[in-house]
Amino acid sequence: MKGSLKRILTGLVLIPLVVAMVYLVPPAVFSYLMIILAFCIFSEYLAMFGERKHSTFILVALLMLFLVDSTSKMGLIMNMSLELGVGKMEQLFNSLKYFFLSLWSGVMLVPMLTMAGKDPVDVKFRRLSVYLFGYFYFGLTFGLFPLVRHYGSNYHWLMFALVIPWVCDSAAYFGGKALGKHKFSPLISPNKTWEGTVSGIIFSTVAGAVLAFTLLKDEPKLFVVATAFAVGILGQFGDLIESLIKRGAGVKDSGTIFPGHGGLFDRLDSLIVSVTVVFVALLVKSYVL
Helix crossing, 156-179 with 194-212: angle to 10°? Predict the structure, then answer.
């Protein structure tokens, strides 16, 4: 009961802060906040594996932050049209150059940096796997938050990307508690059930329909509902990915920053995947619909 109360109280504090961040923070400040958040979660992730104190941490973290920043500057690819002028094409070309420079710098330098030290080969290989995964997983995904936020004339799509997984997680939790009998992935997440998973997908879709007629009433209704359905399915795999990482690291929670909720990664696992799904959906919409 005490744990549930902590979760509720923490949620009541976090929700207005997140809404304020989505709608009130200036674009440049929001991008910097995502860079800071990416650094914090990367640091937390490495601490799970006991790698944060390694000498390469700061250098790899900086490379990862450059990737976050370069990804966040790729917004023009979501709004391309045949009427792009010379100035826009030059802007797009420069953003692409920055993105690929950041990407390939990490590909080349992260393996080299993780070989530093006199540790055994198996330790070096484990370190390489941990650092390289974190570099791509957090470096690419956190750069998508500003892109989704700045799509269109308002910030409703980012709120959509945050609300749907919250609804999904809550529905999956309570649906699993009430109806759960069949384990979904017992080796990775023993508490997750098929009944809870289906509950999450159903309520995600319903929430998407509600948002299609409220916040996103100017968007194609079927597209909004279909995106919510996709987030309801794939967002739950974000939770499984984090559970697998925690089991690999041998920890129960990624951190203790949020009372009753664990660490940053514990709270953002589904959101990372949700924002990625929404970004891909909007990208497809920009070119197809």
Answer: 150
DSSP codes of every residue in 140-198: HHTTHHHHHHTSTTSSHHHHHHHHHHHHHHHHHHHHHHHH--SEEETTTEEEEEHHHHH
Residue 49: helix, strand or coil by DSSP? coil
For residue 65, which of 18, 2, 135 has the smallest C-alpha distance? 135
For residues 177 and 185, the answer to whether their CB atoms sit within 8 Å is no
Could you read off the pLDDT of 89-131 as tens digits, one per residue?
Answer: 788 888 999 999 999 999 999 999 988 878 899 999 999 999 9
Bridge partners of residue 262, in order along the sequence: 258
Q: What are phi and psi of 153, to 5 degrees?
A: -95, 0
Number of C-beta neighbours around residue 160 at 10 A:
24
Strand partners, 189: 185
Identify any residues that bridge with 183 across adjacent strands, giving them in sequence order: 193
Q: How far apart are the first and last CA of the chain?
A: 48
Helix, strand and coil in the chain, % to nearest 5:
75, 5, 20
What is the model's pTM?
0.91
Q: What's phi and psi for 95, nearest 5 deg? A: -65, -35
Are residues 185 and 192 in contact, defined by beta-carbon separation less than 8 angstroms? yes
Q: What is the DSSP letter of 250?
A: T
